[in-house]
């Protein structure tokens, strides 16, 4: 498997799934653009881990449509193309409906939807004309099992990820004729910094035991799946939502 000559833009690439995905792409010969929001030092660590090549990192607040467009325009100006877009960046904020003030509720819903759903939608809109001009491409959206099972304390997160699943399927229908293939990956808990407070908390053992394999996924496992879906020969998977949760939640 080789992705020589492919330019992959990975959002939220400074840590966790994004970092593992960037590393996997680089290992297969792709040029990686590591997007980050605020943690420049962590993004630099990711970039340094990719080895030789034209890899770079770029900052953008995905809630800002102007910054999203600049991210794409600057990437195209340097590399000439974006062959793979991985929408991985996301936020996960606690806001139980009966314990959250109305003002906080508004802020969290707006921030979550803008980051997890509208930001990816804007990135897609900016990227796909370049993919069409190049003859095709891949879009891989990182969603969540929370889109299916419900998120009692994080309802905006669950709603945003359900929306991203639906968006992925709509894109697969719209863009398939242009040789642009779109898939979504829906992880459960993954061994990342974002999940650490839950995995290291009082429910850590319970969370791990929800799976049929006695552990949760690693970021590298998710990264491997992303790169697989970006590889020629997986075109018929377009429109798919692929679970990676150790059988902790099974859809019917």
From TrEMBL:
Q: Name one Pfam family in it.
A: adh_short
Q: Which GO terms describe its molecular function?
A: oxidoreductase activity, acting on the CH-OH group of donors, NAD or NADP as acceptor
Keyword terms:
Oxidoreductase
The transmembrane residues are: none
Q: Any idea where the Ketoreductase domain is?
A: 6-188
Q: Does the keyword Oxidoreductase apply?
A: yes
CDD domains xrefs: SDR_c
Protein family according to the UniProt entry: Belongs to the short-chain dehydrogenases/reductases (SDR) family.
User: What is the name of this protein?
Assistant: NAD(P)-dependent dehydrogenase (Short-subunit alcohol dehydrogenase family)
């Amino acid at each position: 498997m080789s992705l020589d000559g492919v330019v992959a833009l990975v959002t939220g690439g400074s840590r966790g799934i994004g970092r593992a995905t960037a590393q996997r792409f680089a290992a297969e010969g792709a040029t990686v653009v590591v997007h980050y929001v605020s943690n420049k030092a962590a993004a630099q660590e990711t970039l340094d881990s990719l080895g030789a090549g034209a890899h770079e990192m770029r900052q953008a607040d995905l809630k800002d449509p102007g910054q999203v467009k600049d991210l794409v325009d600057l990437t195209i100006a340097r590399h000439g193309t974006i062959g793979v877009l991985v929408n991985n960046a996301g936020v996960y904020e606690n806001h139980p409906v009966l314990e959250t003030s109305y003002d906080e509720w508004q802020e969290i819903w707006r921030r979550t939807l803008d980051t997890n759903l509208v930001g990816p939608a804007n990135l897609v809109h900016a990227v796909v004309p370049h993919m069409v001009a190049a003859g095709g491409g891949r879009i891989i959206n990182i969603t969540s099992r929370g889109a299916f099972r419900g998120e009692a304390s994080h309802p905006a997160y669950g709603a945003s990820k359900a929306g991203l699943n639906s968006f992925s399927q709509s894109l697969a229908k719209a863009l398939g004729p242009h040789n642009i293939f779109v898939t979504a990956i829906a992880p459960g808990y993954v061994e990342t910094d974002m999940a650490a407070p839950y995995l290291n908390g009082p429910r850590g053992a319970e969370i791990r035991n929800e799976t049929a394999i006695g552990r949760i996924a690693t970021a590298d496992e998710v990264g491997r799946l992303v790169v697989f879906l970006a590889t020629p020969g997986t075109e018929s998977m377009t429109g798919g939502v692929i679970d990676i949760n150790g059988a902790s939640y099974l859809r019917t």
